[in-house]
Amino acid sequence: MTAEGVEIDTLTLNGTTDEDIVTPWDVTSKNETGIDYDKLIKKFGSSKIDEQLLAKFEKITGQKPHHFLRRGIFFSHRDMHTILNLYEQGKPFYLYTGRGPSSDSMHLGHLIPFLFCKWLQDVFHVPLVIQLTDDEKAIWKNIKIKDAIKLAYNNAKDIIALGFMPDKTFIFSNLEHIGSNPAFYQNMIRIQRCVTYNQVKGIFGFGDSDPIGKIAFPPTQAAPAICGTFPFIFKNAKIHCLIPCAIDQDPYFRMTRDVAPRIGYPKPALLHSVFFPALQGSKTKMSASNNNTAIFLTDTAKQIKNKINKHAFSGGQATIEEHRQLGGNCEVDISYQWLRFFLEDDEKLEHLKEGYTSGKILTGELKKELIDVLQPLVAAHQEARSKLTDDIVREYMVPRDLGFLTERK
Fold first, then answer.
1. Is residue 338 packed enough to be buried (19+ CB in 10 Å), middle (13-18) or exposed (0-12)?
2. What is the pLDDT of residues 164-199, one digit of tens each?
3. Among candidates 320, 271, 266, 265, which has minimal Cα distance to 112?
4. 3-state DSSP helix/strand/coil % of the chain, to nearest 5
5. Residue 395: burial class (beta carbons within 10 Å; 0-12, 13-18, 19+)
6. β-pairing verdict for 27-28 and 74-78
7. What does the alpha-carbon distance between residue 191 and residue 170 come to, in Å, rounded to a whole number?
8. SS3 for 257?
9. What is this structure's pTM?
10. Chain centre distance of CA 264
């Protein structure tokens, strides 16, 4: 087994009942502050995004790193140095991320990799492919095929509303696209030949009673990380892929990194994000199936206000007097944690942290700050989405040349 294969065997952290569980389908922690990400880095064998990497990023791109990077929201990577070196040399790469459409509307947590991809696309001006794994949801959630495709198109509108470059972005439904793209299916087969049944069981924890569709699915998510999967974009070039994703998706791409060189392609690089916590606290990530754990992109201003005031877990004290004396805990307070994601002003965020920690700012005041950030953000998204026609969506989802060049001008 290769080095990447050895890493695969250390996938989950659920060896004992007091440890975190992190898989592509289950994320739980017994700690109030959530997942231990330093332990995840060691277990998964990735590298921490440090000040040296951020300095290199700024030097090469001329751009200040995104606040997701500065605040450790994207905290771990595989081979990001390689991507930056390629860019410095004028050599191309492409971005790949995805979404498993399981609900008509996405929630704020779903936006994190897409907001980051949008920024990366703007900085590097590179092609982006977005996979909608409606086939996965049809298998795991037992959703009818036609319904899964409908969810994919609804989610595509949420994604497009973020403002991705139409001439640099290809969005596709697995259930619709794979059958019309022989190269996609051929790469799936190449990947399938390289991964044994025992390996896929060890990586993903599949059991003997699971549908065979689950066992066959990982190569489908792996294939877009191989540039040859999209000959209409990349022609005959063999270029690197950069995948921004939440770290629970890493098992798919550790498998891909093991396989890619064996079928003649570069290993994909990755940028891993932390999990966006549920309103009720950081022990789990929010769920599209539980309306009260999340703010959805269809929520009204009133719903946003009510959800945050009623459900956002507080790091404050039991009484105002105690809070003024002892201060609040930003590490567990969901309003502050969400502001780390969506409040771009570093100085204001630090002011809120100091005020809450010292007791000068109360939980209700911190919740109001979050409400004031999220209401206009969601309203702007709803307005942008309302302007999207079916024809515009189809423009993004038609296989086409994205103006790819083998050398950057």
1. buried
2. 999 999 999 999 999 999 999 999 999 999 999 999
3. 271
4. 55, 10, 35
5. middle
6. unpaired
7. 22
8. helix
9. 0.92
10. 27
